[in-house]
Amino acid sequence: MSRFWSDHVVNLAPYTPGEQPKIADLLKLNTNEHPMGPSPLVLEAIRAAATDSLRRYPDNESTALREAIAALHGLDARQVFPGNGSDEVLAHIFNGLFRRGDRPLLMPDVTYSFYRTYCRLYDIPCRTIPLAEDFSIRVSDYTAGHPAQPAGIIFSNPNAPTGIALGLADIEAIASANPDVPVVVDEAYVDFGADSAVALLERCGNIVIVQTFSKSRSLAGLRVGFAMASQEIVDGLVRVKDSFNSYPLDTVAQAGAIAALRDQAYFDQAREAIIETREYLTQQLATLGFEVLPSRANFVFARHPEHEGGALSRALRARGVLVRHFSLPRIEDFLRITVGTRSECERLCNTLSEIFLKTH
Ligand SMILES: *Cc1c(COP(=O)(O)O)cnc(C)c1O
């Protein structure tokens, strides 16, 4: 609290990212980063972009990147809205689409916690809808009509931190039942085994898809994310962006992201490795007695009937293994564990066995 702050700053509830500590021999399975580095073509493109031309401002419209994303998804470049990480893209979506007076934004009670942070920042009323007992999104809760017209609907697919994915028919049902409000599908993890709602864009003009280069393209450090939507919606987002920062993507990031899209073979290999290791990790955790939710992401969400989540996460940390634990209703017994390499997953499971031996 400071007398220099604007009034609303006191009431913000900033998002807490997973920690990035400097501990030797640390196993970091807490922020869903990819265990492999980015494609060598990306590094080459970034080096090639590091020239005298950096004295110039970047292309403020990221034209070449938008065209590359559009080509990949069969869209028009005017339907693509890139930003400095998908968190920034989401911020512009909240600001530009969800600030509708008293109309609430609908979201699952368990989903990406940044959504609530943005509601605070932009003063958007939020109505949370409980996930079903099995932690899936209950489609009928979103299609049966609402007490008041919502400002919009948002969820991640696969959902975070559950990892559970919704099928396209369900997403279409939600979008069609709410034709006058934006339905935002945050697909940060879609490349690890869910279907992208891009396929629905032509039929459902109210769908907004958000994707990122941070997870499946191993580029969390480059900060590139993007939305795909109707041109009408993108035009609104561009108005917000150009009232905030016209140059969200620097020259280097644009070059690196374009190169990442060009290396399809590397992308396929990197995501298949994660999917394979995820199935291995799921089995190993089940063998250790965990209940593991069915994940389509690059993490698993698991709880143990005899071990409290917070205590387990602390015991792992004491042994140099970081996982994510959320002290939140319904999910406080769970650990969110990033799928690393096979040997990293082995180390995690060995460490868990050690902890269990000690506490029994
Ligand atoms: C990681 C993540 C993001 C943010 O990704 P950035 O592009 O790195 O900002 C957005 N949504 C969800 C659900 C995520 O897990």
UniProtKB/TrEMBL annotation:
PTM sites of type N6-(pyridoxal phosphate)lysine: 215
Cofactor dependence: pyridoxal 5'-phosphate
GO annotation terms (biological process): L-histidine biosynthetic process
Gene3D superfamilies: Aspartate Aminotransferase, domain 1, Type I PLP-dependent aspartate aminotransferase-like (Major domain)
Aminotransferase class I/classII large domain ranges (all copies): 25-352
Coiled coil: none
CDD domains assigned to the protein according to its UniProt record, in alphabetical order: AAT_like (cd00609)
Protein family: Belongs to the class-II pyridoxal-phosphate-dependent aminotransferase family. Histidinol-phosphate aminotransferase subfamily.
Protein name: Histidinol-phosphate aminotransferase
Name of the gene: hisC
